[in-house]
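User: hey, got a sec? need Peptidoglycan D,D-transpeptidase FtsI folded
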Amino acid sequence: MRISTGVKRSTQTALDFPIRRKLLMGTMLAGMMALTMRALYLQVLDKEFLQDKGDLQHVGIVDVPAYRGQIKDRNGEPLAISTPVQSIWLNTRQLKDDEREKLAQMAKILGMSDKDLQAFLKKEAGKRFVYVKRQINPDLAEKVKALEITGVYFEKAFKRYYPAGATAGHLLGFTNIDDIGQEGMEHGYNHILRGKPGKKRVIKDGKGHIIKDVENIEEAIPGQDLMLTIDERIQYLAYRELQAAVLKHKAHSASLVVLDAQNGDVLASVSQPAFNPNNRKELRSDRYRNRAMVDSFEPGSTVKPFVVAAALDGGYVDPNVLIETHGVYHVGRNVVKDIHNYGTMDLTLVLQKSSNIAVTKLAMTMPPEYFWGVYSNLGFGSSAGVGFPGEASGSLLDYQGWHEFDQAILSFGYGVSTSILQLARAYTAIADDGIVHSVSLLKRDEDPDARRVFKPETAQRVRSMMEHVISKEGTAYQARVEGYRVAGKTGTVKKTSATGGYTQDKYLSVFVGMAPASNPRFVIAIVVDEPTTGQYYGGLVAAPAFSKVMAGILRIYGVEPDGLDTMPLLLTRQ
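Assistant: Yep! Here you go:
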């Protein structure tokens, strides 16, 4: 039985073989016939098309651009959107002499003179693919399309538009004519915003130019929207006041950052000089650099509150300590000076008058490793990590390489560099009762990287001292905001020279502050580079801009006043 069954199967397989071979041959013949028919169509039935485009070579597959995701502020207001546009191209070999009048009408629609168009056509004569105009409004394209000009073709595309204009230009950046991010958030998050291109089959000429669409293969997937922490209202307010400060003091440049003191969200980030991303004629590298994110500088006296906090928190100084200063203090062969001889000072007066000598003495009480650790924990020397292209890390020399005087100059803000964003981040440790926050440009539910740097009582004590900086006897009286308690610190920093050392006539004016001081909601950091009208102290140049921006923010957010005694008009009426 087994033998007969095996023979039967073998015989059956042998008999089936001719049949399967015929089926296979039939399939192959059908495929060859299809290819032959396609060739016949292209070479005979579509012969006129091929002759028109003598260099037609192949059918290819190309990407179809996806709709680029929007960039929105924290309230859903659009900051960057993509609008449908059309590009017009032509095959100069197909243009007909008897349609010259139509070409003149097209030129008029596109804002060109007939003379310019004819010069363009003469220059590009013989080309089968050349753009006439890219990224035009669809309504203009429809007017051109209605002329039905032989050899004129249309290509769908997208154009990026920025409703906030120059107000958010440095932050958003811009895309190129192919809608690909080139700077700012557009570049940093291009992979998210751009989406996934689709695919279509097209006919290309010998130079790779698309001559004709054949069919869609895969639909494009739109890019994702990007929700920022930025509040467009605050962004505009900060932009306006920073611009006014630069114009008033005829400064070289400036930058300003506003943070939510309780979670590290970046509510505004502006830089001057500004540029409008909608106007591509202004796209010069010296104008579109985001100074708030990528520039670093020595922060000067704005670090002094951290020195006081570190000394208190580590138990290296008593809260009621009195420090002797006599205008000059020697550290080895080096000399530390104050503007005036302040005599004996308590810690509040140290910050109020911004004494270099006093903070140097405080710094020298602390072990280098501990002192360095506080600065490091505040974020100095490390990028703020907001995902912005080219973001500055600043610098902080490792304590193992310090000399005695290095610790001294670090105490009054030299020998360390930071961006204005990093400096604002460090101040959240004073504003939020000892918690330093990570900063973010993308909206989030909470700060996952918040960490404690100082004890709550230490931060509160130092914040109270910083309120005296805003008093008439302090260095930043012009930073006050009526109705609110304000805490802050000034910095006036000599700029480094290209040949080494420091200049004697070029300064950075810096101010960082918070309000309401009883329970800070916002931190604002400002740096103005090279004011040239005579005033250069941080309290006279940067502090007034802080006051105007902070007053506007508190009003917009409806924050309850905590300093009614600073409202003379209201008190007079009462």
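Quick note: The CA atoms of residues 485 and 517 lie 5 Å apart. Let me know if you need anything else on Peptidoglycan D,D-transpeptidase FtsI.
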